[in-house]
């Protein structure tokens, strides 16, 4: 990385995956928090035009190490790789994309239903550290075989009795006639930080500015903004009925029997909330997504 010498010493550095499953969502998130930067495939790094930060594009397997070593201050990577690396980095903020789980799976016709039955067997995985720890913690003695890709074909090849592999929809398991019998780890894309950088006065200020933006986007994605007309008589019930409601704004309308209510509703209670509101006589319900939210 000889080009690194061009990077600005006053800037913080963020490593993201160069080309893979997390790349597009990560770039989109960086743009949503207002960062302007060039990005095209051949680049090793970008300099943000409107924020004191440089972005490095690397293989996801290297991100935890780069952060731990202080080559970069921050990284965005799947938690699965942070755990596997065993590097001392700070897990700062989960980002709610790149969801997947590391699961133990066996051939459907094997008849194996519990991990205890794997005692003495070969288990193939790209996550040997996490896998070995998982079985050791349960006092199950297995032989962990490290494979870098296509782990799911190893049972058919007779190489392993079971696998430990990343699953998101499960379609790859089904395609290979495998079934999951246990869950090792749940993962999502996560911002991680170098501990020295986080303790550094100057860097911490820039990092906190960035994290505030990320938190604003994360909070917004959990809420919908709802505008509606509510019969004045049922207004007092509204806040007692819905736990997801956040500081509603109540405005009079031209008709004294009706009030206009604007509020944010948590996504997970959204549908229940809308049904309740309709029962209370709410009309003209308009729902929109929130781009950013600071509370
Ligand atoms: P690189 O070239 O950067 O090493 P890779 O091929 O190792 O990339 P990807 O397949 O792009 O990695 O996966 C990146 C991350 O996406 C994984 O570490 C994991 O956190 C997440 N992920 C989400 N769903 C899945 C899935 N079904 N299989 C694998 N990874 C997934
Ligand atoms: Zn990788």
Q: Main attributes?
A:
alpha/beta, D-Maltodextrin-Binding Protein, domain 2, Alpha-Beta Plaits, six-stranded mixed β-sheet, binds adenosine-5'-triphosphate, binds zinc ion, N-reg_PII/ATP_PRibTrfase_C
Question: What does this molecule look like?
Answer:
The chain has helices at residues 23-32, 60-69, 79-85, 128-137, 171-175, 195-199, 201-221, 235-241, 270-279, and strands at 12-17, 45-47, 53-58, 74-78, 90-94, 100-107, 122-125, 143-146, 162-167, 178-187, 189-193, 223-231, 245-252, 258-266, 283-289. The protein has 295 residues and is of the alpha/beta class. The chain folds into three domains: 4-98 and 189-220, D-Maltodextrin-Binding Protein, domain 2, CATH 3.40.190.10; 100-187, D-Maltodextrin-Binding Protein, domain 2 (3-Layer(aba) Sandwich); 222-289, 2-Layer Sandwich (Alpha-Beta Plaits). The strands form three sheets. Strands 2-3-1-4-11-5 form a six-stranded mixed beta sheet, with helices on both faces. The two termini are 41 Å apart. The mean pLDDT is 92. The protein binds adenosine-5'-triphosphate and zinc ion. The site of adenosine-5'-triphosphate has 15 residues, from helix 2 and helix 3.
Strand order of the largest sheet: 2-3-1-4-11-5
Average pLDDT number: 92
The proportion of residues in beta strands is: 25-35%
Named CATH topology of the largest domain: D-Maltodextrin-Binding Protein, domain 2
CATH architecture of the largest domain: 3-Layer(aba) Sandwich
Structural class: alpha/beta
Bound molecules: adenosine-5'-triphosphate, zinc ion
**Terminus-to-terminus distance:** 41 Å
- Morphology call: flat
Give helix % range.
Answer: 25-40%
* SSE sequence, one letter per element: EHEEHEHEEEHEEHEEHHEHEEHE
DSSP E strands, number: 15
- CATH homologous superfamily label of the largest domain: Periplasmic binding protein-like II
Provide the low-confidence segments as ranges.
Answer: none
Main pleated sheet: 6 strands, mixed
Our Rg estimate from Cα atoms comes to: 24 Å
Domain ATP phosphoribosyltransferase catalytic: 59-215
Enzyme class: transferase
GO molecular function: ATP binding; ATP phosphoribosyltransferase activity; magnesium ion binding
Pfam families: HisG (PF01634), HisG_C (PF08029)
């Amino acid at each position: 990385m000889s080009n690194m010498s061009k990077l600005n010493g006053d800037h913080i550095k963020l490593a993201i995956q160069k080309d893979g499953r997390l790349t597009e969502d990560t770039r989109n998130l960086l743009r949503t928090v207002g960062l302007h930067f060039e990005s095209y495939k051949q680049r090793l790094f970008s300099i943000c035009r409107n924020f004191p930060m440089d972005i490095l594009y690397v293989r996801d397997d290297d991100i935890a190490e780069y952060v731990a070593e202080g080559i970069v201050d921050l990284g965005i990577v799947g938690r699965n790789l942070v755990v596997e690396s065993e590097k001392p980095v700070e897990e700062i903020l989960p980002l709610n994309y790149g969801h997947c789980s590391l699961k133990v799976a066996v051939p459907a016709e094997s008849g194996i239903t519990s991990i205890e039955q794997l005692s003495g067997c070969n288990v193939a995985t790209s996550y040997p550290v996490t896998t070995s720890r998982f079985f050791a913690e349960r006092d199950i003695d297995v032989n962990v075989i490290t494979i870098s890709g296509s782990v799911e074909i190893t049972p058919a090849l007779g190489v392993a009795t079971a696998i430990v592999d990343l699953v998101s929809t499960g379609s790859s398991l089904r395609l290979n006639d495998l079934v999951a019998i246990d869950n090792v780890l749940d993962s999502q894309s996560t911002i991680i930080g170098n501990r020295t950088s986080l303790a550094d006065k100057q860097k911490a200020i820039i990092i906190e500015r960035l994290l505030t933006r990320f938190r604003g986007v994360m909070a917004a994605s959990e809420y919908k903004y709802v505008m509606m007309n509510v019969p004045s008589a049922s207004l007092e019930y509204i806040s007692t009925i819905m736990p997801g409601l956040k500081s509603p704004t109540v405005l009079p309308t031209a008709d004294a029997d009706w009030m206009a209510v604007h509020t944010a509703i948590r996504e997970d209670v959204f549908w229940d909330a809308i049904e309740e509101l309709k029962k209370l006589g709410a009309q003209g319900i308009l729902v929109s997504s929130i781009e950013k939210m600071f509370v």
